[in-house]
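Hi R.,

Here's the chain you asked about this morning:
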Amino acid sequence: MKLSVPFIPDKEYTNFLKNKTLNIESIYFSLHSGPVLDSRMRFKKVDFTELSEGLQQFKHVKKYSLLNSRFLNPDLYSDTKFLNQTLDKLEFLVAHSNITGIVFSDAYFLTAMAATKRDVISCLEAVPGINCMIDSSQKAFSFFDMIEQTGFKLPGKIVLDRSLNRNMNQLKKTGDEIKQQYNHIKIELLANEGCIYHCPFKLAHDAQISFSNLRITTDKTFQTNRSFGCHAYFFKTPEKFFKSPFIRPEDMDKYTRIADTIKLCGRTLGSNFLFNCISAYIEKSYKGNLFNLMDATHWLSEIWHIENKRLDPGFFNVITGCTKDCKNCSICSDLFLKTATKQPLKIKKYKDCL
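And the predicted structure, written out as tokens:
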């Protein structure tokens, strides 16, 4: 199975991806300029020309711009200057970097862009983002109907909600129903988020990121998660990580008849993380700490080491047969005792804390 991976305009990382293009179906990237339009916190600003030139290196790989913020300031929906500036950038990337489309989560934003009636609209696929949480064919069809009305192209792929990753019957049923109606659309699965199963903090977390990116409040997502959210949850019960619907590199082939591509995340963790993660999924094998491949729970790698190879054999059959009746089950606890060791306390160098 081919991969969908993040693109960041870093020379060493770009060269790494160029050598892996036979394994890559698509790349996705932030515009890195103007208002924050994607679903992560703002980080290092990148020159737009540098971004375009980096994307030009991938002539036979699909390229998607992330415009997937949970929501924008409602005033921006009718701000023609803002909308046209955004579409100017996309038009430039279509002409110079041959981008394929956009990833969105805010349907108001998509329809607002469409209302400009710019010609570039019909050149771009509109792909519902992972945070649209599409877990049924009917939900997918609702998105497709809306996209068709805007004039954007229907997506060439759709990433299904991570909650389906271990419900193999429902996953296959959903994918089959989508392909019966839209046989050109590929099914994609997110492999390495590693967050809480059906995370109860998810929608509020996404909203808080949007609030911060809109400068309504300062960024307090890390502190909030550490005190009240997923960090506190996993710090108290790290064994519950095994309930998270991640897909190990070794288990990718189990999905070949159900999905077409595997998506990897973790672009804010830097190029070294991406080198390690992408290589593991290309090789379909990883000898090391499983937390080092995860995005949302990467921080646990400093506390616990889960030796990935100790999960072989049989891990996939165990977790896809799980009833999720945790009160009457010890599978996650047993797996954790078998594979996890506490990391020694390390004092970070000052420069690594900046």
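The two ends are 37 Å apart (CA to CA).

Let me know if you need anything else.
M.
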